[in-house]
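Lecture 7 notes: from sequence to structure.

We start with a single chain of 131 residues. Read the sequence below before looking at the structure.
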Amino acid sequence: MTGGQVILIVEDNARNLKLARDILNHVGYRTLEAETAEDGLALARAERPDLVLMDVQLPGMDGVEALGRLKTDPLTADIPVVALTAFAMRDDRDRLLAVGFDAYLEKPLNVREFPGQVDAVLRRADVGSRT
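Now the structure, written as tokens:
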């Protein structure tokens, strides 16, 4: 399913980060982790992961601003970015997709569905064609 793909998780809550990492590692993804948007941006530039899972509410720079920086940087512009958020209202989902997130996943993560949701985003983005 995973083909050794690398996923960057940007999440400031240690439990949420561990859960996402453990689930993704269990199904064969490699993960990179950052607790701040700034660290996530640096890792994305250095490592060019196949996908970024971005918490929306981060200390300092939030996930929406970090998304904007990823999408305007030629080194990271083609990396799909998924919003991870506890916001659960339909307007929140629509707003986050409208600002440029490639997908939206609600927290708490559904342990059974999460790997398939990540795989679906990667397939839609056709990450195999990136260089």
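The first helix runs from residue 14 to 26. Keep this in mind for problem set 3.
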